[in-house]
């Protein structure tokens, strides 16, 4: 949508609604007109087709609250239509002279914005989002800003790939080669887009600016140059490999260092390893999405590793010392006497390595209950049961009442 459209076109009139119409009225008017003017209902009717496009364009703007606000503000400041805009400034615009010479609307916004900094706001600030902006020292919306945007360096696209790691590799860190397909600088033309032996030349239409300007009454409007498609360069003899784009899809292998402690689904950013930039712009970034396989023994809870270790009933009752596995070797663990099933013991510093403090290894004790007993073992258990008595607290009416009150 050009700036001229915002000033010259009457979208409310196209839909037949007032400027105060709400969203429901605008939608209702559009639907009725779209049904009546649809090309399928009016085959071969060029007027109906043109009107259908006009109605659709109007609805696209007025149905979007942000764009509608920008449209209303532009018409409020510059009048409804090109003639109204000129009439809003008796004697012509500043710098236009008595003959009403055309000028660049973006330059007006830039100048107004600079003047407004001394006071409150200014047209350049007001229309910063509507007409675009430039770099430091470049007035937003000016011809220079548009030329920089069209023909200046362009950053390359970001690229994403995936890597599947074992549980140990994710916890301890690993260096892996990644074979991937992604855009890269064409090896035949070195990114110029021109056939070897030839070179691009400056576009004769826009003189390398990438944009062209045309006058409309008192305004001068800029748009991307159609001859060079906004690049500022023309390739007469395109490269046969990339068809003049300067970029091809390439298979490459890069070595990536995966830091210790990455989690499943984590994205690792590698700056400058994405698609190459255009016109001397920087390359994009490469994002590696990590997938971590499960471990047959260990689980993970943040930076802590979890492990379940079975012990026998006598070991739980009398206590014991166990040797349990860790990712970086074995560790000795003392199980206190009287340990119940489900108790978790902590081994500090043997979890996921970290830059500061490493995680811990959390060992959960599980008392193994035999499924079958020999007659001798069964008699021994019964004897032990008789010696120990019933360790469970006696359940009385009072304890039941207290429990129900919680």
Automatic annotation (TrEMBL):
Residues 173-251 form the CR-type domain. Binds 2 Zn(2+) ions per monomer. It comes from the Bacteria. Residues 396-406 have a biased composition (Polar residues). It is found in: Cytoplasm. GO terms for cellular component: cytoplasm. One of its GO terms (molecular function) is heat shock protein binding. GO terms for biological process: DNA replication; protein refolding; response to heat. PROSITE patterns: DNAJ_1, DNAJ_2, ZF_CR. Zn(2+) 1 binds at residues 186, 189, 239, 242. A zinc finger (CR-type) spans 173-251. The keyword Metal-binding applies. Residues 137-157, 383-406 are annotated as: Disordered. Residues 10-75 form the J domain. Zn(2+) 2 binds at residues 203, 206, 225, 228. Keywords: Chaperone, Cytoplasm, DNA replication, Metal-binding, Repeat, Stress response, Zinc, Zinc-finger. It holds the Pfam family DnaJ_C. InterPro entries: DnaJ, DnaJ_C, DnaJ_domain, DnaJ_domain_CS, HSP40/DnaJ_pept-bd, HSP_DnaJ_Cys-rich_dom, HSP_DnaJ_Cys-rich_dom_sf, J_dom_sf. CXXCXGXG motif repeats lie at residues 186-193, 203-210, 225-232, 239-246. Belongs to the DnaJ family. Homodimer. The J domain is necessary and sufficient to stimulate DnaK ATPase activity. Zinc center 1 plays an important role in the autonomous, DnaK-independent chaperone activity of DnaJ. Zinc center 2 is essential for interaction with DnaK and for DnaJ activity. Participates actively in the response to hyperosmotic and heat shock by preventing the aggregation of stress-denatured proteins and by disaggregating proteins, also in an autonomous, DnaK-independent fashion. Unfolded proteins bind initially to DnaJ; upon interaction with the DnaJ-bound protein, DnaK hydrolyzes its bound ATP, resulting in the formation of a stable complex. GrpE releases ADP from DnaK; ATP binding to DnaK triggers the release of the substrate protein, thus completing the reaction cycle. This is Chaperone protein DnaJ. It comes from Geodermatophilus obscurus. The lineage of its organism: Bacteria, Bacillati, Actinomycetota, Actinomycetes, Geodermatophilales.
């Amino acid at each position: 949508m050009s700036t001229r459209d915002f000033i010259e076109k009457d979208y409310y009139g196209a839909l037949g609604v007032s400027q105060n119409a709400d969203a429901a009225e605008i939608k209702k008017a559009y639907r009725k007109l779209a049904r009546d003017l649809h090309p399928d209902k009016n085959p071969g009717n060029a007027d109906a087709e043109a009107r259908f496009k006009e109605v659709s364009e109007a609805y696209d703007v007025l149905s979007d609250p942000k764009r509608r606000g920008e449209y209303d503000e532009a018409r409020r400041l510059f009048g409804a239509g090109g003639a109204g805009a000129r009439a809003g400034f008796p004697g012509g615009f500043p710098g236009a002279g008595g003959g009403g010479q055309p000028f660049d609307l973006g330059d007006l916004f830039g100048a107004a914005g600079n003047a407004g900094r001394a006071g409150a706001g200014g047209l350049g600030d007001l229309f910063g989002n509507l007409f675009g902006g430039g770099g430091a020292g470049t007035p937003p919306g000016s011809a220079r800003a548009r030329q920089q945007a069209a023909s200046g360096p362009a950053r390359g696209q970001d690229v994403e790939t995936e890597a599947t790691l074992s549980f140990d590799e994710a916890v301890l860190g690993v260096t892996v080669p990644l074979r991937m397909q992604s855009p890269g600088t064409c090896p035949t033309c070195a990114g110029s887009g021109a056939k070897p032996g030839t070179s691009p030349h400056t576009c004769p239409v826009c003189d390398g600016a990438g944009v062209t300007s045309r006058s409309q009454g008192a305004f001068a409007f800029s748009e991307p140059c159609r001859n060079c498609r906004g690049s500022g360069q023309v390739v007469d003899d395109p490269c046969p490999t990339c068809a003049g784009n300067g970029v091809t899809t390439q298979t490459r292998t890069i070595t990536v260092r995966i830091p210790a402690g990455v989690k499943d689904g984590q994205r690792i950013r590698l700056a400058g390893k994405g698609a190459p930039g255009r016109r001397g712009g920087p390359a994009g970034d490469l994002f590696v999405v990590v997938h971590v396989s499960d471990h047959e023994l260990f689980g993970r809870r943040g930076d802590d590793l979890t492990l379940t270790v079975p012990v026998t009933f006598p070991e739980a009752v009398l206590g014991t010392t166990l040797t349990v596995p860790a990712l970086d070797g074995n560790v000795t663990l003392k199980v206190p006497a009287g340990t119940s099933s489900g108790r978790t013991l902590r081994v500090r510093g043997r979890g996921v390595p970290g830059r500061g403090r490493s995680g811990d290894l959390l060992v959960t004790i599980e008392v193994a209950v035999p499924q079958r007993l020999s007659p001798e073992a069964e008699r021994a258990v019964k004897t032990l049961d008789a010696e120990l008595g019933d360790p469970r607290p006696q359940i009385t009416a009072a304890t039941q009442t207290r429990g129900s009150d919680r």
